[in-house]
């Protein structure tokens, strides 16, 4: 069965690429927005949209009904503004007071948990004759950013009194929403609700990320922040099993060379794999600098011609080796699927995360910037971004 990749005839660039199915992304956005309704959906596109490409995915999410986008730092927000994104941009990471001028100039909605940032934003807003919507971060149990309830209420009242600021939102981050026991999450939720009763004039509250959107509509409040599930994955296997989430990314590469090695021959650095029979080995142009981890060597499988084939030897920085003895007809130029579907077979980020003793978030976000992204609509590649041209361009 031939590889189910749409791009070999049209993509002549680097022989490793990620295919980003914007139709699948739009489907997931609509699904999450419907589950959270009437709450607004912020599509989280931090970390280059979890490795999928922030600009293209941000645009697609907004087209599909997201109210705004969420990033973790001002640089990520500026990338979106430079690309022409005009929607609300929520910056949910720690913004230093030294970035106040950029926040105001870029019309951002920063998370705030310290008075120095509040004062810097107010001063810059007055200077520019602008108004900055701010979101106050409540510390409810994650113990990262934010302020405990009493300190947050005091900060909110001080910010309310300063010119140039509008306290638009109150939010918190859950520490264990994807765990089976929801008691701690419910306790955090109650801290947020109780604090919001002390600030009835703040119009928007948000706490739900993917797990809570899928599990508990009560927690949607006025807004939610959809992250991992936008890209087609559940935060835990039991989260939202009734939700038809569709994986958005496929990672593919080409075969550069096919060699026959004798029984006893070794492959790759460290000679960690030796052939136990005459073996046909394909050199595949994807390595750990592309995000395909070194630890996958001798432990994972890829898909070639719709069949599973084991990765043999250590994954190198720029390439890996695959035993294709059982896959007839493999030749240079053939497409190998490292994440995604080929025929009836599939390898997904959850599979790789289990092997690497990590989580699917890290597998997806780890696909490096040097891997070209091809953006698909209707099963066709319509745009591409590369290390040289990060903004998507039509192809």
From TrEMBL:
InterPro entries: Ala_racemase, Ala_racemase/Decarboxylase_C, Ala_racemase_C, Ala_racemase_N, Ala_racemase_pyridoxalP-BS, PLP-binding_barrel. Its cofactor is pyridoxal 5'-phosphate. It is an enzyme of class 5 (isomerase). Residues 248-376 form the Alanine racemase C-terminal domain. The active site is at 46 (proton acceptor), 269 (proton acceptor). The keyword Isomerase applies. Transmembrane segments: none annotated. Its EC number is 5.1.1.1. It catalyses: L-alanine = D-alanine. GO terms for cellular component: cytosol. Signal peptide: none annotated. This is Alanine racemase. It comes from Anaeromyxobacter dehalogenans (strain ATCC BAA-258 / DSM 21875 / 2CP-1).
């Amino acid at each position: 069965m031939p590889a189910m990749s749409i791009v070999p005839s049209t993509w002549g660039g680097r022989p490793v690429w990620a295919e980003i199915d914007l139709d699948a992304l739009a489907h997931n956005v609509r699904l999450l927005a419907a589950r959270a309704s009437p709450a607004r959906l912020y599509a989280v596109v931090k970390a280059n949209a979890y490795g999928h490409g922030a600009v293209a995915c941000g645009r697609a999410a907004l087209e599909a009904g997201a109210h705004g986008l969420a990033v973790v730092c001002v640089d990520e927000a500026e990338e979106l503004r430079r690309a022409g994104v005009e929607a609300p941009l929520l910056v949910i990471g720690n913004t230093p007071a030294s970035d106040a001028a950029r926040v105001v100039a870029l019309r951002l909605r920063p998370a705030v948990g310290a008075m120095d940032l509040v004062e810097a934003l107010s001063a810059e807003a007055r200077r520019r004759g602008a108004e900055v919507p701010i979101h106050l971060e409540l510390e409810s149990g994650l113990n990262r950013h934010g302020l405990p309830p009493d300190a947050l209420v005091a900060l909110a009242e001080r910010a309310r009194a300063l010119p140039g600021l509008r306290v638009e939102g109150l939010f918190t981050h859950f520490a264990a929403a994807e765990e089976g026991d929801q008691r701690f999450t419910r306790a955090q939720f109650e801290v947020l609700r109780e604090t919001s009763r002390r600030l009835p004039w703040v119009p928007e509250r948000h706490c739900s990320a993917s797990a809570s959107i899928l599990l508990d509509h009560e927690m949607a409040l006025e807004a939610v922040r959809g992250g991992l599930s936008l890209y087609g994955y559940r935060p835990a296997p039991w989260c939202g099993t009734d939700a038809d989430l569709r994986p958005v990314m496929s990672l593919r590469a080409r075969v550069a060379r096919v060699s026959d090695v004798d029984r006893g021959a070794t492959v790759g650095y460290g000679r960690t794999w030796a052939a136990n029979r005459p073996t046909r080995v394909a050199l595949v142009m994807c390595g750990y600098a592309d995000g395909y981890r070194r630890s996958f060597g001798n432990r994972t499988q890829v898909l070639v011609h719709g069949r599973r084939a084991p990765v043999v030897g250590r994954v190198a920085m720029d390439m890996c080796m695959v035993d294709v003895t059982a896959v007839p007809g493999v030749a240079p130029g053939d497409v190998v699927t490292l994440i995604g579907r080929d025929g009836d077979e599939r390898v997904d980020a959850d599979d790789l995360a289990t092997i690497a003793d990590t989580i699917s978030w890290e597998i997806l976000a780890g696909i490096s910037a040097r891997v070209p992204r091809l953006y698909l609509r209707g099963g066709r590649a319509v745009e591409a971004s590369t290390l040289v041209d990060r903004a998507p361009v039509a192809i």
